[in-house]
Design goal:
Layout lengths: L12 H7 L10 E3 L12 E3 L6 E4 L1 E2 L1 E9 L16 H16 L3 E8 L10 H4 L10 E4 L3 H9 L9 H14 L5 E9 L35 H13 L2 E7 L6 H14 L10 E2 L4 H16 L1 E3 L10 E5 L2 E3 L8 E6 L4 E5 L1 H9 L3 E5 L4
Parallel strand pairs: 5-6, 5-8, 8-9, 9-10
Antiparallel strand pairs: 1-2, 3-16, 4-11, 6-7, 11-15, 12-13, 12-16, 14-15
């Protein structure tokens, strides 16, 4: 069923009280009381701001993804000289081919930006508009790929690119709907040209065209807002919300490729190698990104309730057997977001843990 245009799904105070959890000032984690008894698994969580020594049952994470989708005017341009489909249609096709495969294992929601009137009658302010608050176009849920795709299908490219504001909005939603054992991520799909920061100086900022920034009356809002957007993504990560960056990157300016890379690194889910973001230059790229998310988050990503001061001062056991740390990520565990206390099992170590159907256990030592 089609959604009405821009239905923002806003949280209620009661739901926030039910789902919201506090977080430690340094780590954003909740730590249970440690135990030394072989069969004890205390579920009483307390706040902590430092390493807590002891042995803990680890929490396997479920995944909630909020797609933050750029539908600015530049998304109407062809992907490349070789592929004349619009960037918008390429992105929609990639989502349509991929989302249904994962709707049973990952909650998915969507925020589409900017909020441009359906009439297309733009003013400079409307081109950059984002509502305050924390609502989304579609709230995250399992099995809602068709609802999400219908919502995306209501729109065509128009307006400017208030990426920082959209990331901040999606982050507010994630933080106010947090839950223990729930890994929350943003998936930013964009062609890498953020703007809409009225605080920048059009005389000194980087403008998208040689003629300057005063295009369509935007003035300072047309400046490339790379630092502001990277900062918004970094703040999301500091609150435990990582960001995967999907670059709609056929024939785009090298400056925008650099922005995509910076955003991917800031989000804490960057690819290794020269290009740090996921690309849709080939249709399989988005599927590969989701495969990676599904493997590392849904099946074998865990939160250790107490994060050690030094990265190797933790012993991980699965069904009583020691799991080695493997920085190559072939067979063992490795930190995937140490600041937040998230580690992931890779390769056969993941398969063994899934087959054992038993909780992982972490023994944490403090000090360096």
């Amino acid at each position: 069923m089609k959604l009405p245009p821009r239905r923002y799904l806003l949280r209620s105070a009661a739901l926030a009280a039910t789902l919201g959890v506090g977080c430690g000032a340094k780590t954003g984690l909740l730590a249970p009381d440690a135990t030394t008894a072989d069969d004890a698994t205390d579920d009483v969580f307390v706040r902590f701001d430092a390493c807590v020594a002891g042995r803990f049952a680890m929490v396997r994470r479920e995944a909630r993804m909020v797609f933050v989708i750029d539908r600015s005017g530049s998304m109407s341009l062809p992907l490349s000289d070789a592929d004349r489909r619009s960037r918008w249609n390429v992105m929609r096709s990639a989502l349509g081919a991929t989302l249904p495969r994962f709707e049973g294992v990952m909650q998915a929601g969507v925020l589409i930006f900017p909020r441009v009137p359906a009439s297309g009658a733009l003013s400079a302010l409307q081109a950059c508009d984002q509502l305050p608050g924390d609502g989304l176009d579609v709230a995250p849920a399992l099995g809602n790929a068709s609802v999400l795709l219908d919502a995306v299908g209501l729109y065509a490219p128009a307006g400017a690119t208030p990426t920082a504001a959209a990331i901040a909005r999606a982050t507010r939603y994630a933080v106010t709907h947090a839950a223990r054992g729930l890994a929350q991520y943003l998936v930013l799909a964009t062609d890498g040209a953020p703007n809409c920061n009225a605080a920048l100086d059009p005389a000194t900022c980087t403008c998208p065209v040689a003629s300057g920034c005063n295009v369509a009356g935007l003035g300072a809002r047309n400046c490339i807002d790379d630092d502001g957007t990277v900062g918004a993504i970094e703040r999301a990560r500091e609150q435990g919300v990582g960001t995967y960056v999907i670059g709609i990157d056929g024939d785009i300016d090298a400056r925008y490729v650099a922005v995509l890379d910076r955003m991917a690194v800031a989000g804490g889910r960057a690819l290794p190698g020269a290009r740090r973001y996921y690309s849709v230059r080939e249709g399989a790229q988005l599927g590969a990104a989701f495969d990676e998310i599904q493997r590392t988050v849904v099946r074998c990503a865990y939160v250790t309730p107490s994060r050690p001061d030094a990265p190797d001062r933790i012993a991980v056991r699965s069904a009583g057997a020691l799991v080695p740390r493997d920085a190559t990520r072939r067979d063992g565990w490795d930190w995937t977001d140490r600041e937040y206390g998230e580690l992931t099992l890779f390769g056969p170590a993941c398969e063994r843990a899934v087959a054992a159907s038993r909780a992982l256990e972490a023994t944490v030592a403090c000090g360096r």
